[in-house]
Amino acid sequence: MEFVERPVLIVVRSKPFGTITFAEGWRAAVGMFGMDHESHILFIGEGVYGLLKDQDMMHIRMFKNTFESFDGIIWASKASLEERNISADEIFENVEILDEEGVAKAFIENDIAVPF
User: Could you state, in order of their start, the residue ranges of all structural domains in the chain?
Assistant: First the structure.
């Protein structure tokens, strides 16, 4: 069977602390580049808390830096941010905020979606 490069969407919807799931989403996003796939990461629901600037990033720093070095695209759901009263100024730089149509498009344009 021939290998085919695919666009992969990593969907992070879990809280950043309390479980390893959040960090595993970052690791999977980086791993997709290692497997020659095009990787995107979308934060929705409770996952948007992991984009806050004022947090201890020790558990994700390496993954986030590596993901960005591969020009990985980071998206956040506008609705999820608004539901939690989080402004664009409170999250990391280089995060594109998607409205509902943009979130739907992200799912449509990626061949595979992996939830965390």
Answer: 7-115
Annotation: CATH topology of 7-115: Hypothetical Protein Ychn; Chain: A, (3.40.1260)
For residue range 24-53, list pLDDT tens digits in order.
998 999 998 878 888 999 999 999 999 998
Distance CA 12, CA 44 (A): 6
Short-list 22, 67, 15, 16, CA closest to 40: 67
* The CA-based dihedral angle spanning residues 32, 36, 96, 90, taken in that order and rounded to the nearest 10 degrees: 40
In whole angstroms, give the CA distance from residue 19 to residue 21.
5
**Residues in the chain, total:** 116
For the record, the structure tokens of 63 come out as 């993954």
Pairwise CA distance, residues 21 & 7, whole Å: 21
